[in-house]
Specification:
Number of strands: 22
Number of helices: 14
CATH class of the largest domain: Alpha Beta
Distance between the termini: 47 Å
Largest sheet: 7 strands, mixed
Structural class: alpha+beta
Strand content: 15-25%
Radius of gyration: 23 Å
Number of domains: 2
Strand order of the largest sheet: 6-5-15-16-17-14-18
């Protein structure tokens, strides 16, 4: 943006992405970079169906100065210690991808090498016994991390009502000067010479002009794709699910502190426990099951009575070729779609906004900043893509055409490289853009049955008695710490009723 007069920042689209953008810009700039306007239409629905998140959502809320207790009350939130994956590796199998630490290093050598050393040739390594998140989740318990001991190793996120969160953030943003415009956009204005977007005209005839635009229009990509034709990189050959049917159901009495993902014949079903209802959905591939059968499968597998008729959304997994083009930056689903298997949707909104703020232009649109932003977004999307593909590829299932395809499909070289390292030496190799760190890769690699045949020789430097004693102490401390926690449902009620 040019020096001199402040320029208007226009956010196209509301929902979670739009109001997160408005809130973060209002909080971090105080309106000093330009007035912030948001355009949304109540006629256009949002994809939000009850959101599950990852721990970075806590960082976002802290940036805004949001009080956790108030947030939990206002958004009907519950706490999330990880994701349980049922029937992914094989039918009847279950493991949890926890958010906290798994084990602890012994000396400089990472924990997984001692776990593999201790269990090599003896069956599947039991990593859950070394995770406080797993132990607490299995017991239905929760308390925030504290101190410097084992209780500090716990990480957590939230489940919440996405519609209520957007409403909460709208009040936050409007209180800080963001101006909302109601109405459906009918035309987008562009500069004839540069192609830059100049404004959007609403059905009412009102035109909202601006110098910089943030496209939060969801899968439609109104500005980034329909107007600027950014292009799209299709990843459906690796992630073949292309539809989701979803419906809310009644409250789960035990209010489990984790998301559940259950593999089905042609995809997987989620379950997200909230205070006032349960979010449910079946993500599936239309090439392996018809819509009607998917709807029936979802309803049949609900744990509580449905509260509304199921709805279907269609999508293509992938990302925009350029998330920033001209004076438009796409945020959220407008930038790309990755199925919600690891609850990354809201994080990608947050991450995209932080990258944009870090690269905010001063004098016009600097191509260097645009290139850097697009490279960083692409790296993060691709790293998450690989992590999701791992769940499908590393399976023993051969019981349906969908799973046979997934098990035998070729995968990106970047994922093959990581899997090969883990198989041969139990090393976890992180690369640029990796959102998920060592504990996450360890849990999913082991959980999906990727078995190392060896480990770091540095683990052999420590004598057997020391290793056995330390592993035993870890298991004992984790079990005791989980046992001291209150039931998750009681903890949530204590916040709501206080």
């Amino acid at each position: 943006m040019a020096d001199g007069p402040r320029q208007t920042i226009v956010i196209v689209g509301g929902g979670t992405a739009g109001w997160m953008a408005a809130s973060l810009l209002a909080a971090t700039t105080g309106g000093k970079l330009g007035d912030i306007h948001l355009v949304e239409s109540e006629e256009i629905g949002t994809v939000g169906v009850g959101e599950a998140t990852i721990p970075y959502i806590r960082d976002f809320n802290r940036l805004l100065g949001i009080d956790e207790r108030d947030f939990v009350r206002q958004t009907k939130a519950t706490f999330k210690l990880g994701i349980e994956f049922r029937d992914w590796t094989r039918l009847g199998h279950s493991y949890i991808h926890p958010f906290g630490q798994i084990g602890a290093p012994i000396g400089r050598t990472p924990f997984q090498h001692f776990l593999i050393r201790d269990t090599l040739g003896k069956g599947e390594p039991d990593f859950e016994s070394y995770s406080l998140c797993c132990a607490a989740a299995r017991a239905g318990r929760f308390a925030p991390p504290r101190g410097n001991g084992v209780e500090s190793t716990l990480g957590y996120a939230y489940h919440f009502d996405a519609g209520l969160y957007a409403r909460y953030l709208r009040a936050y943003a409007e209180a800080r000067g963001v101006v909302r415009h109601e109405g459906r956009i009918v035309t987008v204005g562009q500069d004839a010479q540069t192609g830059f977007v100049t404004g959007v005209t609403l059905q009412s005839g009102e035109t909202v002009a601006g110098g910089f635009f943030i496209d939060c229009s969801g899968l439609a990509g109104l500005l980034i794709e329909k107007t600027l034709h950014s292009g799209f990189e299709d990843w459906s050959h690796w992630l073949p699910c292309n539809r989701a049917v979803f419906a809310p159901s009644g409250v789960l009495d035990d209010m489990p502190p984790y998301t559940r993902s259950t593999a089905q014949a042609a995809g997987w079903q989620w379950r997200i426990p909230l205070q006032h209802r349960t979010g449910n959905g079946y993500v599936f591939s239309s090439g392996y099951i018809e819509d009607g059968a998917a709807v029936d499968g979802l309803v049949r597998n609900l744990d509580t009575a449905p509260l509304a008729d199921p709805k279907i959304i269609r999508f293509t997994t992938g990302r925009r070729s350029s998330a920033w083009k001209h004076n438009v930056v796409a945020i959220g689903l407008a930038a790309g779609f990755l199925e919600p298997l690891e609850s990354t949707s809201i994080h990608l909104i947050h991450s995209g906004l932080l990258k944009l703020i870090d690269l905010w232009p001063r004098n016009g649109i600097d191509p260097l900043l645009v290139t850097q932003y697009n490279q960083a977004i692409a790296a993060e999307f691709e790293a998450i893509r690989d992590f999701l593909i791992l769940h499908y590829k590393a399976t023993e299932r051969e019981d349906s055409p969908f799973w046979r395809y997934c098990r035998h499909m070729s995968v990106p070289d970047t994922l093959t490289y990581k899997m090969d390292h883990f198989r041969t030496s139990a090393r976890i190799i992180l690369t640029r853009g990796d959102l998920f760190q060592v504990p996450s890769w360890l849990a999913v690699l082991l959980g999906q049955g990727v078995a190392p045949v060896s480990y770091d020789p540095m683990a052999d430097v420590v004598d057997d008695a020391t290793v056995a004693a330390q592993l035993s102490a870890m298991r004992r401390e984790i079990a005791a710490a989980a046992g001291r926690m209150p039931a998750h449902a009681d903890f949530v009620r204590s916040l709501v009723d206080a």
